[in-house]
C-alpha cells in the first residue's frame, strides 16, 4: 500500500497487485521450495506485482530503478525483472479478473450514493485488502460488503431492494451470508489499523479515516465476535 500511495497509482492497480499475489502464491502450493524462497523475499514480490499491475491498469508505471531504490537495496533490477517473468509464466499471463472496485462502482450507482458515502465505501473496501480472509471472498461479495458496511456506518438502511437484487441476495439467502462474512472480515481488519498504518494515512487527510475509526466499533460491534 505504501508503494502504491508513493507512486499515486490508480485504485485498480492496488487491487490487481494484491490479486496477483494471492493467485501466484496459491499456484505455488505444489512447489514448496519455490514458495518458501519467494516468501522470504516478500518485498521483491510486492514490487514485482505492483510493477505488473501498473503496466496493466495505469498510465504511470514506476521505473525499475525507482522501485529498487524504494526497497533500500533488498533486490537489484535484474531480480525484479526475473521475478516479473516468473510470475507471468506461472500465471500463464492470465492477469485480469473482475475486481472489487469494478463491482463497487456499479453498486454505489445502484444505491445512488453521494460523494461521502462513496468515500466511506472505498475506504472500508480497501481496508478489506488487509484481511487474511480476503482470498476466500468473491470480488462481488467484497464490494457489496463495503457498500453495506458504509451504509451501516452512516446510519442509513443497509440494504435496498435494488442492492439486494444486484447482489443476488433477494433470491438466495446463502449469498447474503457470503456478503456478511466478507463484511465481518472487513470489520476485523478495521480494528487492526490506525495512525501510522498505510491505508489509514492514505485516507486521513480529510478526516475520513478518523471519523470511520471512531464510529465503526459502536456501529458494528457484533463484527468482532
UniProtKB/TrEMBL annotation:
Swiss-Prot/TrEMBL GO biological process terms: cell division; mitotic cell cycle phase transition
Domain of life: Eukaryota
Signal peptide boundaries: none
Example of a GO MF term: cyclin-dependent protein serine/threonine kinase regulator activity
Keywords linked to the UniProt accession: Cell cycle, Cell division, Cyclin
Isomerase in keyword set: no
Residues in Cyclin-like domain copies: 1-89, 105-185
Spans traversing the lipid bilayer: none
Pfam families: Cyclin_C, Cyclin_N
Family the entry assigns: Belongs to the cyclin family.
Protein name listed in UniProt: Cyclin-like domain-containing protein
Organism: Alexandrium andersonii
Species lineage: Eukaryota, Sar, Alveolata, Dinophyceae, Gonyaulacales
